[in-house]
Design brief:
Blueprint: E1 3-8, H1 15-25, E2 30-36, H2 38-43, H3 53-62, E3 68-72, H4 77-85, E4 89-93, E5 108-112, H5 120-127, E6 131-136, H6 140-149, E7 155-161, H7 165-174, E8 179-181, H8 184-189, E9 193-196, H9 203-212, E10 216-220, H10 227-240, E11 244-247, H11 254-264, E12 271-279, H12 298-302, H13 304-314, E13 320-327, E14 334-342, E15 347-353, E16 362-366, E17 369-373, E18 382-387, E19 394-397, H14 405-416, H15 428-443, E20 447-450
Parallel strand pairs: 1-2, 1-4, 2-3, 4-5, 6-7, 6-9, 7-8, 9-10, 10-11, 12-15, 13-20
Antiparallel strand pairs: 12-16, 13-14, 14-15, 16-17, 17-18, 18-19
Helix pairs in contact: 9-10, 10-15, 13-15
Length: 451
């Protein structure tokens, strides 16, 4: 029996895909089809996939051409699969000619001509319009975001808004933007979507005004400073048919998504504890991070990251939350805050600090082993699953490109175009949970002070 194996993303399955599968099937007696996972696609810079892995696998299955469907999760897997399944022929499209010649030592390699005049890229372009996006804010992260946007097709940054005319003009000139505005309503009239990157205390107002205008919104964390405000914004977004997404980039990194999958798979047993920290020393006392009038403080600046991963792994319904904090005497802004969570079957701790330093790592404790992510865990590229017997330990590596903001922007764009499977990466419930914890801290619920 001759076995043929081929791989692809198979997004928006079309005639070209089916023709390739038919021709591959005709080369042997058995066809194995590898479908790329979301995390693998993102790790190699393929950010415009619209359908979920489940949808793409199901579409391949419906063709009736595959005897076996597998998932491709990482670079180098093809050789492993060829050996595992005893493949005689490896088939791939002609646009990859020469790329997989190294596999000729193990099987026959065939490059098939693509069907002319049809491609997933063309279908995406025909199906989706170019999103004109504006940036509200002109600080450091706004500049990084604009640079990252160049790597996401289907979106164009066209305008910037700021209250200081001289600063917003200089920003627009620096990044060659055609339009800048100091009047928010005029700015909103010129765009389809808004990236909100202003100080924390202004998020709620600018997001709400954008949603009322029917604009999609990607907002830097925290989305708002209270649970009630976040719930109101999501309700408004639903009423207006708008996408609202919190821009916490960790959630969209391929390696972080794989980490969550490994933790939930049961490989480390039942999760009993999650401990995460994000600290950085900020020495400029005049910075906004220390300004109480701009909702400054370690927790509002950094706390969302560890709280997010706790909610992702243990759920958003904790039994009890207690805080320990150290504040700046002159302003009352917190320099160090730790939140301790109690769940029915687990415990967790989240640390955020701008005036104290510790290892910024993440540890997920299980009954069979644990997952360790070294600092900076919020820029996840590597993690290790560890066991009592170190010979069983396994490391996972999936790098992210650039500053990482392109991944959240790509997910935001897919949501605008109706690709709802990206909702699971950072959900409405995740954002409400993060806001709820911040609300409790700011209200002083179960807060112990240290000097």
């Amino acid at each position: 029996m001759k076995t043929v194996i081929t791989y692809g993303t198979f997004d928006l399955l079309h005639t070209g895909h089916v023709n390739l599968l038919k021709r591959a099937r005709a080369l042997g007696d058995r066809l194995i089809v590898g479908v790329t996972t979301d995390s693998y696609d993102q790790s190699r810079g393929k950010l415009n996939v619209l359908e979920s892995l489940e949808e793409r696998v199901e579409n391949v299955r419906k063709t009736g051409l595959a005897d076996l469907i597998i998932t491709e999760e990482l670079e180098g897997q093809k050789l492993h699969d060829i050996q595992k399944y005893g493949a005689d022929i490896f088939v791939i499209g002609s646009d990859w000619t020469g790329k997989f010649d190294y596999l000729r030592e193990h099987c026959e390699v065939v490059y098939l001509e693509r069907t002319k005049g049809v491609s997933s890229t063309d279908l995406r372009s025909a199906r989706n319009f170019i999103v004109h996006m504006g940036i509200a804010g002109h600080g450091r992260i706004a500049g990084r975001f604009l640079q990252e946007s160049k790597y996401v097709s289907g979106i164009e940054i066209t305008a910037v808004y700021g209250r200081d005319e001289e600063k917003v003009r200089r920003f627009a000139e620096s990044y060659e933007l055609l339009e800048y505005y100091t009047e928010y309503e005029r700015f909103l009239d010129k765009v389809h979507a808004v990236y909100v990157a202003v100080p924390h205390h202004l998020h709620y107002e600018l997001v709400k005004r954008a949603l009322l205008k029917g604009k999609h919104v990607l907002c830097e964390k925290p989305l708002a400073l209270s649970r009630e405000e976040v719930e109101e914004l999501f309700l408004l977004a639903a009423e207006r048919g708008c996408v609202l997404l919190e821009a916490l980039k960790t959630a969209f990194f391929p390696a972080f998504q794989q980490l969550i999958g490994v933790a939930e798979s049961g490989v480390i047993g039942s999760i009993k504890a999650v401990d995460a920290a994000f600290t950085k020393l900020i020495e400029d006392d005049s910075s906004r991070e220390f300004d109480p009038m701009q909702a400054g403080g370690a927790w509002t600046e950094l706390g969302a990251y560890p709280v997010f991963v706790i909610g992702k792994l243990l759920g958003t319904e904790s039994r009890r939350i207690r805080f320990t904090t150290c504040r700046k005497p002159e302003t009352g802004v917190d320099l160090f805050t730790r939140a301790d969570f109690l769940y029915p079957n687990a415990a967790a701790s989240a640390t955020g600090a701008s005036g104290a330093k510790r290892e910024g790592d993440l540890c997920v404790t299980g009954t069979r082993g644990y997952i360790y992510v070294p600092s900076p865990w919020w820029k996840t590229e590597m993690f290790e699953v560890r066991f009592e017997d170190p010979r069983q330990n396994r490391k996972y590596f999936i790098r992210f490109e650039g500053d990482g903001l392109r991944y959240e922007l790509a997910a935001f764009l897919r949501l605008i175009h109706g690709c709802r499977h990206d909702n699971r990466l950072l959900t409405r419930g995740d954002s409400i949970f993060m806001a709820d914890v911040t609300s409790r801290f700011r209200r002083g619920e179960y807060v112990d002070e240290i000097s």
